[in-house]
Amino acid sequence: MVDRLANSEANTRRISIVENCFGAAGQPLTIPGRVLIGEGVLTKLCRKKPKARQFFLFNDILVYGNIVIQKKKYNKQHIIPLENVTIDSIQDEGDLRNGWLIKTPTKSFAVYAATATEKSEWMNHINKCVSDLLSKSGKTPSNEHAAVWVPDSEATVCMRCQKAKFTPVNRRHHCRKCGFVVCGPCSEKRFLLPSQSSKPVRICDFCYDLLSSGEMTACQSARSDSYSQSPKSSLNDVSDDDDDEDSSD
Fold first, then answer.
1. What does pTM read for this prediction?
2. CATH assignment at residue 191
3. What is the pLDDT of residues 191-200, one digit of tens each?
4. Same domain for 169 and 121
5. Which residue, 11, 96, 126, 223, has most beta carbons within 10 Å?
6. Does 69 fall in a domain?
7. Rounded to whole angstroms, how far apart are CA atoms 119 and 112?
8. pLDDT tens digits, residue range 176-214?
9. Residue 13, exposed/middle/buried by CB under 10 A (0-12, 13-18, 19+)?
10. CA distance 212 to 51
11. Averaging pLDDT over each range in 82-91, 134-143, 208-217, which range is the top one?
């Protein structure tokens, strides 16, 4: 099916429409053999609150962006190579239902579909695309992925020292290795995580000690487990204007 669509006029036209929706700021998406599998709106769990994002699944990449005008204009384009992706289902809890984790070496996050059927379809299609890519390339699935950041709303105190309370003055920070919300004093150190950045990034003291001693995997947070153990932020939280997982904090 995908091979038949690869060079079809209909597929080329659909990809061109997606390109135009992102405008000049977006990267070109039309390449030989690329097929647009499907698209839709998913709720992405961002640092401040869950937000609607437009997702496009191709046979080799996953693309998403902010919705400016539905079906007409999107910005802040993100492109994720599918051969680096692994996905894990998330248990339903509260307002956040029908979700799964999208995990890559550089960035990992949770998304939620409107229905269980939509979730199943997305996960099945993503898994099929990843499987086909790995089969063709002979590569093995990625066993390294960035931590999924704990949303700000899930931590009123530092998740490491369990003492420092967050206020407008005492800001929240995120460890790039475990994804925990931590205070400044607990995350003053930097460490080079090549899959995430070419420069040393902020990590908590706990992860720094483990990384420095060579215990690289010990501080990797099991986010799929912690999602079912921690309180969820409401879909109606106060607003924030963009994805800021890549911000300096």
1. 0.83
2. 3.30.40.10
3. 999 999 999 9
4. no
5. 223
6. yes
7. 7
8. 999 999 999 999 999 999 999 999 999 999 999 999 998
9. exposed
10. 36
11. 82-91
